[in-house]
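Technical annex B. To support the medicinal chemistry partners, we prepared a structural model of the target in complex with adenosine-5'-diphosphate, based solely on the information shown next.
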Amino acid sequence: MSLLEVKELTKSYNGTLAVDHVSFTLEERTATALIGPNGSGKTTTLSMIAGLLKESEGSIHRDFKSGIGFLPQYPQFFPWLSALEFTEMAAQISGVDGKKVRQQSIRTLEFVGLGSAVNKKTGTFSGGMRQRLGLAQAIVHQPKLLLLDEPVSALDPTGRREIMDLLKSLQQDATILYSTHILNDAEEMTDQLLFLKEGKLVEQGSLSEVKSRYAEPQIRLLFETEQAAVLFESRKLWPMQRDRNVIALPIS
Ligand code: ADP
């Protein structure tokens, strides 16, 4: 059964299209990566699905009652609150039953690996701890749909590995849509990839499916990532592309 249906979703900022008639469906308990370079419309898309931003055109069918969790790219906390106080506040805002707020917050903090930091002030948290706390506030109400904006991009390899493993375990109970500009991060968790380029959904499916749809001369446009910026003109270079965290997309 589909949990999210996005049809012709469009957002323009002062006449400039940031998201351009994007349509896709997510099935229950699946993980999907929204992949594209910076500025391709990932955050805008996730924000609209989360209900934080109004779409200019199109429609989004999702069930707010079954819960939506959102992890922003740069989660913000009140530095004077402890991790537990912050998570409890998030739980209350998300409608967790008052009697269960404490227990569910502690359980969630333990799940994300912050069990020994529940009473620490969030203002003292490292980048990795902030990402874990961001995840905790997104899942404390056990949402059926989890939207994660670049959940691991800012982390070192160890932190990235740990958060990836957490996300994989969440997949048993929730539908996950997460954005990334790093192909390896996308592929590691799922083969359901949505390729976003300049606001348009240019491809969807596993990397091998996408590759197989294009004959040699058609794949050549590449966009920059933090790791590399190279223009490939041949399919022969795909393996190298993977090594270097580079993404190629068909020319529109
Ligand atoms: P991504 O998450 O893939 O980096 P964004 O969704 O943040 O992409 O941005 C998509 C496009 O929309 C970019 O060109 C960006 O400059 C523009 N944009 C995003 N937010 C705003 C805003 N609040 N006002 C004007 N333009 C914006």
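Notes passed to the chemistry partners:
The chain has a mean pLDDT of 84.
Helices lie at 42-50, 83-93, 101-111, 127-139, 157-170, 183-189, 207-212, 238-243.
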